[in-house]
Input
Amino acid sequence: MDAVILTRGLEKTYGRTQALAGLDLEVRAGEVFGFLGVNGAGKTTTIRILLDLIRPTAGSVRVLGLDPRREGVALRRRLGYLEGEFSVEGRQTGHELLTHLGHLRGGVPSARITDLADRLQLDLTRPIGTLSKGNRQKVGLIQAFMHEPELLVLDEPTAGLDPFLQQEFVAMARAVVEQGRTVFMSSHVMSEVQKSADRVGIIRDGRLSGVDTVDSLRASAIRQVEVVFAARARTADFVGLPGVSDVRADGAVLHCRLEGPADALVKALAAHDVLSLTSEEPDLEDVFFDRYSGERPEVAS
Amino acid sequence: MIRTVYAKWLRDSRRSLAGWTAAIVFVGCGYAAFYPTFEDPEIARLLESYPQALMEALNYTNITSPAGYLGATVYGLVVAVLMTVFAIGAGARIVAGEEEAGRLDLTLTHPVSRTSLALQRVGALATALLAVVAVFWLAMLVIAGPARFASVGAGNLAAMHVHLAAFAFLFGSASFAVGAATGRRAWAIGAAAGGAVLAYAASGLLPQVDGLEWTRDWSAFTWLTGSDPLTNGLDAGHLAILLGLSGAFVAAGTVAFCRRDLAV
Output
């Protein structure tokens, strides 16, 4: 597959602070790529370089095969962008702004704007300044999606969206990649990207510390399993099963950690009288940072 | 339909433009309507008793003729100051004000180059200044009879207003340039306003000092009213200086803007 975004040894220095310290990033056509990192890790710096809002100190960047610096206008024609802090003149209505932005792109069918607004339940006739933060974010999402760009670059797109809209966003992002287009989105929490992303890359201290598919993270996720038996739990039957560790018994309750397929554990349990079985949804952030032996970026609340 | 950055900028500025036009028409015409007072022989005698140096410092040497009065008070001071303040504020907003408000990124992440954005918005500023002086010109024509300065003539008044627009554009361009190069609105306004104050001093006050007479030739106020457009019409030389310097500011500001990183 072609690389839609390709950076090599990207560096950006502000005075004495090094925001990017040799970032090698490759985003492929037709995927949703989650770009994860704590605030200050270099996410926004990277994104602003892709859009030629700032220029790298060293290294190379190609986006859709173009150089953002020299071929910026041609590149931005094929790209949709949502900034982290979407802020516009507040007295214009959503309709007025989106129509204008559509014209800057050579015209966007107004039906497409109203379709997106209906889907996100946004009133386009209200002045943007009177909208809530979540509704302003919808205006930002619409302007990024409305011209059906080949590449969407979204800086923290789901921050401030309620759960219904987060789901709607996942559906919109998946629809984009089904058409062979690409989404590059940043976030500081895994839970916001794991539903939509195919691959996740973590940036730490201005470098990419690892890239993995969400599927592979899920497969190796460690789950906390709790089993309640009709009789007293016996740890001996479960210790040593593939993927099972930390086996503890507490009366009729058995606790253990499960990594990888659940098959062996389930078959062992089948020999007993099981009253209930719970397995927590794994935290992929834990998996990721276990795998790359880093610290967790942030305690997700 | 708002298809371009130019049209959008004018549209977004319409409230401020309407307010400034009203203020300039109101204050300018108000001062102009005061002219008949200076025709009074009593006033003329009173003014003759003032020291010559003071009259020169205030540009009041020909205050009793319509062109002299309007040139010294309306165009040489009150309206010049209002136009300058308007142009400096608008020039600073083009890049620096928008950048500080975090609004510049949106347009620049569309297929619009920085050069195009800067030039279209500077073009919108020039259009706005021309609109203000045009409306003000119409208002002056309306009161010319009652206020007894009809002898100046519509053509010479128009010439004065062209000078006024070019004069304001110079400070608007300077403010744009500093803002585009630094991204700081306060610096843009400070530098351009400082330049305007210096220019005012150089037009009247400084030349009173021995050895500083030359400063008068380098003042934008001299390029505004020094050739007396209300009597002599357009002055190609002064207009060329005003527009040439403006062009240089716009070019320098745009080049610097294209080269630097934008603030978040």
In short: Residues 33 and 147 of chain B are 5 Å apart (CA to CA).
